[in-house]
Each structure stands twice: as structure tokens, then as C-alpha cells.
Amino acid sequence: MKLVTFQQAGFNRVGSVFGDRVVDLHEACAAMFREQGKVRYRQLAEAYVPADMIGLLEGGAESLEAAERAAEFALARPETGDGRRLVYRLDEVRLEAPIPKPGKIICVGHNYREHILEMKREIPKYPVIFAKFSNTVRGPQDDIPYPAATAELDYEAEFAFVIGKKATGVRREDALAYVAGYTIANDVSCRDLQRRTIQWLQGKTVDGTLPTGPWLVTADEIPDPSGLDIELRVNGELRQKSNTANLVFDVPFLVEFLSGLMTLEPGDLVCTGTPGGVGAAMNPPVFLKPGDVVRIDIERIGTLENRVTSATGGGR
After folding, report:
1. 81 pLDDT exceeds 70?
2. Do residues 52 and 103 touch, judged by C-beta distance below 8 A?
3. Tell me, which GO biological process terms does this entry list (predicted)?
């Protein structure tokens, strides 16, 4: 499935995308249980298919299976008997970040060989990890606000995965069973702020600097995440091009490594690093400016495209 968080009538809902349509999974589940004669159909729907993404992931395989059945039900009956809509056109809703407020956002630096070389670093013996916070998260239809504090705004195309169940001390051979799915992230970075200190945090966690989306492709649709093409363009110009086969530390290794350090929870987002071709490494460096359009394509996931706006001229 392609799971989305979408906004309808001012509320965030969880949906599944089928072509140009999106199913409201919670409402669809309630309608399905109602037709089956369940007395407490709304409470059952809340238990099986909650209206928020992290709640859905916490339900595990049982919730995802219920969501699939509900989607099939809704596509055959796009409206309930009492007038509640179960299916919308994509152009009727606003897509938000798949996980609007992840519990943890873990980023991996220096994880593509070509990026390590262009930044004049050595291949690390252990993953270089840092954090972003939920204030950075934006969706596929949001702009990237140009922060007033920086003069060196840069892009970073990243393949990201989302944890699907609690993970502590996971072994590599079991790691993919803990992944709910995959999405696209742009680890927008303020390079001048990043260089101020040996810690990168201040250049990485400015408001609005982590667009993600457009959806979360469930892990069953990408059984092997190790060979996916990834490209980034600015205003149509190709800047980054690689493949997840070039990761120094792949997804199973990262799940094993990270779960050995900390407990991973459903909805935690892990950004696996960026390929070569960042603006800071160009000669001379070329940074983003208001009006630029940044497009990231990852094989079997889709496209994430966001426009850079002035700090006061755009946003949500």
C-alpha cells in the first residue's frame, strides 16, 4: 500500500492511494464493520485502523491487514448509506508528511561513498548519526522556507525508512521485519550553521528543513531496499544520481546498529544519508535560493517536489 496522511475538512486522516484516488482508511473500516453488523463498529475501527499513522503502525500486521480490507471495501462502495465519503480524489485533499510528528528522526551522515569523497572525508567505521526534530518535518505540498539565519541552504536527497514495531537488540537477519515502509526525505541543511561547531545540530534542525513523502510505501511492496535508483534535480537540472546499493551501511545494518543503541518505536524515521552532488561540494558552491524547485525521485516510491520560498513568503 501507499499510505498517506491527508487533510480533509481541517483534520488529518490516514489514507491509502490508488491511482488518483485516496481512501479514508478509518472511515472505510468503520463502514465495513457496520455493514458486517458489528454493534460497536466505530470503537472497533478506532482499535483496528486509527485515524493517525503512528497509531496504525502500532497495530502491526493486524491493523495493516484490516486497512487493506477496508480499502477494498471502500473502492467498491465510495460512499456510505449515511452520506459519509470513503474515497476522495487526490486533488480534493492536502497531503501532509506521512509521519507528521515522528517520535525520533535519526539521520545518517557520510553513508554514500561518492558523498564522502566530495566532502573530503574518510569512509567511517561506524555509522555517523545525528538527529533532526519534528519541527523540521514538512509534507509533499509544503514549501521549504528559506531560514533568515542562513546564507547557505543546501539539499540532500535521502532514502528513508520508518520503523513498524518496537525494536531492541535486533539482529541483521531479522531487521527488515521491523521496517514498516519507505519514503523520500530531503535533509535540507544550513551549511554555514552546520560548520559553526563540531556538532551539526544547529544546521540540521531549523524549522521546515525536512520535507518527506509523498507517501509511505509499505515494506511488502519493496522486499529488497538495496537496489533503488535515487535522483535529485533543482529547477530540472540533475544534481544527484545514485542507487541505494551504494550505501556504506544498508538498511538491515542500520536497524541492527541503531536498535543496539536505543529502543526504536513505531513511527520513528531513519534517513539513510545523501549521495554525492550536494551544492556545498560544487566548485564554486551553489546553494538554494527562493523560487528554486527541488525534486527527488526514488525508484518504486515516487516523487517528492518542494519549492523554496522566502521565510515570510510561503510555507504551509
Report:
1. no
2. no
3. carboxylic acid metabolic process
